[in-house]
Amino acid sequence: MSLLDPLFRQHLDRLDQRHTRRTLLPVRPEGAGRIRRGGRTLLNFSSNDYLGLASHPRLVERACDWAQRWGAGATASRLVCGTLELHAEVEAKLARQKGTEAALLFNSGWQANAAILPALFDRELLGGDALVFTDRLNHASLHHGCAAAGVRQIRFRHNDLDHLDSLLAQRAGEPGTRFIVTESVFSMDGDRADVPALAALAERHGAFLFLDEAHATGVLGPRGMGLAALGGGRVDLAMGTFSKALGGFGAYVAGSGALCDYLVNRCGGLIYATALPPAVLGAMDAALDLVPTLDAERARLQAMAERLRAAFHGLGIATAGSSTQIVPAITGAEEDALALSRRLEERGILGIAIRPPTVPPGTSRLRFALSTAHTDADLETLVSAVADAWSPQ
């Protein structure tokens, strides 16, 4: 028993009362689009494995091969002796495919956002304070990075670039370097930002544009390498992950050579973290080879999402502004989301309830994430199960 156990229990009790307590439930992969949990095989519509690459033989084989050849671990941080030749090779390949001067690998998307933003907002670098404009629905890691930097966010309404424009204009005379921090695809609503308009707005106001591409990398943009390419070279920093559509683990930054060199020297999340191991790098390398060849799979994924949205709308289910492979079903109340998730699991479907603080109060939902591992029959099974389990609020 720890000193704070009574306080921990009180907090957990309050979460139980609000229907927002989380628990860890182990699962086991069971083939294409399926997992085993609690002794049952379920159709999995909660994974971020959008292209089904997590179990692709090419990724598994290269991960095993690089581990056998290079060992289980990198043994040190990047600036000590942890930068293997493999890191440099993967970063060079990634930069070529992103069309940037350089790229830099990080251990996770959360670590990247939480560590990079404080480095960018550094007063010594900027010679003063940063003015940071952020979308209200940004991922928690972006909010955390801003908080860690000690900056006050100037938040604009979700995907409302007119509001962002007005906020920037209002502060035109104030000192400070301008930053716009947003996502290209939002993980809970499944909608996307207008990247060309964002880039034009950033250029007009002289703002640095930071774009989180975690849920776009692999599935959207030219050759599946994200929406930053639509910015005409005006996206200053694109962050993305290998842990979603690219099937493995880790994250990246793509941008100028000077940006990446600066982060090597100033970003604590890279400086003080042990480097990614060879097996992870092997899966990254294989994914970068595969993704540009998967245009047909990406088209099918978006077509499936469009069918699911149409089916949900026919049932009177709101799907927020979804226009991607992420399709939420908004229930509103936390207890309704939990109840729907339970009813679907009884019908063989894994659809996880998403509740505050992950989403704003009153917008609890089931977040359905589609994958090319799903068949057309799987999609029909989902629609039928939701139609049977849904209770209009």
Automatic annotation (TrEMBL):
Annotated Aminotransferase class I/classII large domain residues: 41-385
EC assignment: 2.3.1.47
Domain of life according to the entry: Bacteria
Reactions accelerated catalytically: 6-carboxyhexanoyl-[ACP] + L-alanine + H(+) = (8S)-8-amino-7-oxononanoate + holo-[ACP] + CO2
UniProt subunit comment: Homodimer.
InterPro entries per UniProt: Aminotrans_II_pyridoxalP_BS, Aminotransferase_I/II_large, AON_synthase_class-II, AONS_Archaea/Proteobacteria, PyrdxlP-dep_Trfase, PyrdxlP-dep_Trfase_major, PyrdxlP-dep_Trfase_small
UniProt keyword Transferase, yes or no: yes
Organism: Azospirillum himalayense
Gene encoding the protein: bioF
Lineage: Bacteria, Pseudomonadati, Pseudomonadota, Alphaproteobacteria, Rhodospirillales
Family under the similarity heading: Belongs to the class-II pyridoxal-phosphate-dependent aminotransferase family. BioF subfamily.
Pathway the protein acts in: Cofactor biosynthesis; biotin biosynthesis
Protein name (database record): 8-amino-7-ketopelargonate synthase
Protein role: Catalyzes the decarboxylative condensation of pimeloyl-[acyl-carrier protein] and L-alanine to produce 8-amino-7-oxononanoate (AON), [acyl-carrier protein], and carbon dioxide.
Keywords: Acyltransferase, Biotin biosynthesis, Pyridoxal phosphate, Transferase
PROSITE patterns given in the database record: AA_TRANSFER_CLASS_2
NCBIfam families per the UniProt record, alphabetical: bioF
Cofactor(s) this protein requires: pyridoxal 5'-phosphate
Pfam families linked to this entry: Aminotran_1_2
Entry's Gene Ontology molecular function annotations: 8-amino-7-oxononanoate synthase activity
